[in-house]
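Can't attach files on this board, so I'm pasting raw text. These are the components:
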Amino acid sequence: MHKYSSYKTYTPYISKYDPCPPMKVKSYSTPINLYLGFQPMNLPQYQAREALQKGTLWPALYSPYEKVKMRKPLFSKPQTQPELQPEEEEMD
Amino acid sequence: MAGKKQEMYDEQLLQLQEIDFVLLELNLYLDTHPGDIQAIQQYNQLAMKRKQMQMEFEAAYGPLLHYGQSYTKYPFQWIESPWPWQV
Amino acid sequence: MWLYEKKLQYPVKVSKCDPMMAKYLMEQYGGADGELSAALRYLNQRYSIPNEVIGLLTDIGTEEFSHLEMIATMIYKLTKDATPEQLKAAGLGEHYVMHDHALYYQNSAGDAFTATYLQAKGDPIADLYEDIAAEEKARATYQWLIDMTDDVDLQDGLKFLREREIVHSQRFREAVEILKVERDKQKFF
Ligand SMILES: [Fe+2]
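---
Top answer:
Structure tokens for the assembled complex are below.
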């Protein structure tokens, strides 16, 4: 995955008159296409099998979704500039 | 299909889906990067390999394409089940 | 013209008998941000856009039809052997009365597909931004669909489709970059 986070969180206002138990933290996806810019040439590629399974040929474009209940709250400091550094590097 | 034959079919189909997916990804990439010579070489190499794989797959399981883009045995194989959503 | 290829883009597996999930999946079959909508949107816009991006609209539009076929496969498998009672319990009683086990281009609430889901402004930037938004909305829909099922095989197919929306959005963003460069600059000297 990438150095930047693939989702961000926020904390909705909680009123004591809200009828349901509050969701203290909400989150939303911030996929790679927000950061990548024009795709650079010669990025590392997945092997064909993994590419199909991941849904993209390039690790740098892989930006999976995590189910809400599995997400950890990110009480984030100000976001630093995202860097494009795919962890998984495989050349075809 | 059942047992061994089903397994063989699944594996060969998967290999075709894999190479076709890489070709599709390279195609979309080249649509916006028409000057990437390395990607073009990779595209052409895989396209050649794909043709070979298609011929082998079709010899075993029947035509992938219609309108004369694939050969057929007797009787006309195109209409044979299973269709992709039935498998 | 188009050719049909007798295979799915990605292997679709459904492991749980869950007709209610079929109802939800119709959002991506005949819904506003669904695959039919996407295919028709891009293939229609390509007639009035600069040459540099016609290929991209053609290729993504065509891929969307293969996604439509994947969604159809999921719905087909989830409803194929469901009894009228099961369909009724899944909220598909009205669907059964109108269509039996036929698929139909409608959204998860049963509203029929309409061309008003698509835009074509003829302005390349407006249209490409529309396309980027459509991809993001489709991506979000896949997230909510993933949340609605615990069938890992079905989730697997939905995750593939979600990632494709991210790649499509990326390419449309690049198309905007291509069109915004100072292509007519020499004329002003
Ligand atoms: Fe898409």
